[in-house]
Amino acid sequence: MEAREPVAELDARYSDPKATATPWAEARGLLQGAGTFWLSTVRPDGRPHVTPLLGIWAEGAMYFCTGPAERKAANLAANPHCVLTTGCNSLTEGLDVVVEGDATVVGDDALLRRLAGAYEEKYGQNWHFDVRDGAFHGEGGRALVYEVAPSKVLGFAKDPYGQTRWRF
C-alpha cells in the first residue's frame, strides 16, 4: 500500500497539446516492474557518478543495496541527494521515470526482511539475502540498504510526448 498518493501535474511546456498527465498507478507499476535502475550521486569533489543497479519500489519508496566500500556508498555518506531513473530507450513509445530524493540507510531488521523477500521474489534466488545487524548479507558480503523517499518524481511519456510531475 502506498504511504502517500502524489498529485499528478502535466507540464504543458514540455508536452504535446494532446498529452494528458500520466496516472501515478502507471508510473508506480513501472517502478515496481523495472529490472534495472540508474543511480546518480555526487562524489565528494562534486563530480557526478552514475551506475546501474537493481531496485525495489515498496512501501512508497525506492530501495537499493550496495557494499559499504563502494563508490556510491561513499558518495551518499557525503551527500544523500540522489536520482534513480528507469524506463526504456525508445524514442517513440513507453515511459521513463525519474525519482529524486535523499538516500538514508535502512537499519530496521523487520523492514530489511520484507525487502530481502521482495528482492528474491523480483530477481530470483541469486538475489537471496540474509538479514542481520541492520544490513543484507549474501554471496557478495555485507550490503547496506538505502531508502529513497521521493521528493519529486517525473514521468516522460512518448506518443504523445508528455511530462508529468508527481508531487509528494
TrEMBL record:
Gene3D superfamilies: Electron Transport, Fmn-binding Protein, Chain A. InterPro entries: F420H2_bilvrd_red/Heme_oxyg (IPR052019), Pyridox_Oxase_N (IPR011576), Split_barrel_FMN-bd (IPR012349). Pfam families: PNPOx_N (PF01243). Residues 25-140 form the Pyridoxamine 5'-phosphate oxidase N-terminal domain. The keyword Oxidoreductase applies. The keyword Oxidoreductase applies. Keywords: Oxidoreductase. This is Pyridoxamine 5'-phosphate oxidase family protein. The lineage of its organism: Bacteria, Bacillati, Actinomycetota, Actinomycetes, Streptosporangiales.
